[in-house]
Design goal:
about 425 residues; alpha+beta; Rossmann fold; Coagulation Factor XIII, Chain A, domain 1; 2 domains; 6-stranded mixed beta sheet; 5-stranded antiparallel beta sheet; about 25% helix; about 30% strand
Length: about 425
């Protein structure tokens, strides 16, 4: 028997206007409402927008956060949604959760939806944990008796027994998300939507949460939509995966195929050109030596430009493991040369080379961020400059372990040309 379709997305698009809300006048807003909601016509104010590429400066004030998205989700399926920052993942979940509406297209959802899109979703900070459980349960359509039956199980899962009668405004972000997830997962929604918030919890809770989502889908036949940058969690939990890129659906296939494609997209950025704005000293090109990486040597070349002469430049980087935790970093303000003086005649551009000669890491996935500054200020920050998979030849570090992944004893060499 073919599983029932519980989510159907057809030609879904979402456009945002940068900087302003509304059309600029009450008359235009009313006319848009009349044309689209009452008469059912096409939006007369819908503009041609640009792709949502945050790395380049556009010419339009309109961007497409999502463009022509089509897919179906079956009952009991665990669907992963992956992509780089700004790909449209959170926008898609907000539309599916009915937090916001689509600009064009339609979604059909069968069943009750519980969503966890950010820490403390649906919680009132002045109410206690106990009161918020009943409030959140009521919002999700549960009766008091149903909530009472699940109450002890929810509190035990969240691990907040001692603080259940304390206002949640005094909770840590980790306690917040534990309780919010426990409520959403235990109050039996037909569809559970979870964004990146699980990254706030500790490793033990993340393991419990993934186990609970598996139980909800496999044991109870419920549907889960899960967004994460942690490819290990995506692989463990999801049957099928969607890859988004700049608001467009690249593919929807078996998880292993999609994750490999995603890592290929990220790793294809082993040489990146960034559009120069001309407003400040800025990274304009960055390249990673893939061959040396195989030999446990990290070598990265950074080209920068400046609209004015730069007497000194201070680069830095931070390395993150697959859980998104920073594990190592270096910069020339505190490591290596105190100040890099430029000797060549043209002081408005240059090349910086970073070499880490012994990349003593556990096998696994990593990302690296870069920044530029002088001795006092930061000029430019390049988030997720590269993501890469590292294979260790050391028998003690060759097995991937997100809890142990880290860098030890790194000596960095900075060279400027």
């Amino acid at each position: 028997m073919k599983p029932e379709t519980v989510i159907k997305v057809e030609n879904l698009s979402k456009q945002y206007r940068l900087g302003n809300v509304g059309l600029g006048s009450l008359g235009a807003d009313v006319n848009r409402w009349w044309q689209t909601k009452v008469l059912g016509n096409e939006d007369p104010y819908l503009k041609i927008g640009e792709e949502n590429n945050r790395e380049v400066i556009g010419n339009s004030e309109y961007v497409w956060a999502l463009r022509d998205i089509n897919f179906e989700v079956q009952q009991g399926e665990v669907l992963g949604i992956i992509g780089r920052n700004g790909a449209g993942k959170s926008t898609l979940l907000k539309i599916l959760s009915r937090t916001t509406g689509p600009t064009t297209g339609s979604i059909k959802i069968k069943g009750r939806v519980a969503s966890l899109l950010e820490v403390g979703t649906g919680f009132h900070p002045e109410l206690t944990g106990r009161e918020n459980i009943f409030l959140n349960g009521a919002i999700l359509g549960m009766t008091k008796d149903e909530i009472r039956r699940k109450f002890d199980e929810i509190v035990a899962f969240a691990g907040v027994e001692r603080y259940v009668d304390t206002p949640v405004k005094r909770y840590s972000s980790g306690m917040y998300v534990r309780l919010a997830f426990a409520v959403a997962a235990h109050l039996e929604p037909e569809i559970l939507i979870v964004d990146e918030v699980l990254a706030v919890g500790d490793a033990e809770f993340q393991k419990k949460a993934i186990g609970k989502m598996k139980e909800v889908s496999e044991g109870q036949g419920r549907t889960v939509l899960f967004v994460s940058h942690n490819m290990d969690s995506i692989r463990k939990l999801c049957d099928t995966c969607i890859l988004l890129r700049e608001g467009k659906l690249v593919m929807i296939k078996e998880t292993s195929i999609v994750v490999n494609q995603y890592l290929g997209i990220v790793n294809s950025l082993l040489e990146r050109d960034i559009e120069y704005t001309g407003k400040k000293p800025q990274i304009v090109k960055i390249a990673l030596d893939e061959e040396l990486l195989k030999e446990s040597i990290l070598r990265i070349m950074i080209n920068y430009k400046s609209p004015y002469e730069v007497k000194s430049i201070h680069p830095g980087f931070v390395l993150f493991n697959s859980l998104g935790n920073p594990i190592f970093g270096s910069n020339t303000r505190f490591h290596g040369k105190k100040q890099i003086e430029k000797e060549q005649s043209d002081k408005s551009e240059g090349l910086i080379e970073l070499i880490v000669p012994d990349l003593n890491l556990h096998s696994g996935y990593y990302r690296i961020d870069f920044w530029l500054g002088d001795e006092f200020y930061d000029f430019d920050y390049l988030e997720n400059a590269f993501s890469f998979e590292f294979h260790s030849n050391n028998p003690y570090t060759s097995k991937p372990d997100p809890l142990l992944m880290g860098a030890i004893d790194k000596r960095c060499e900075w060279i400027i040309k």
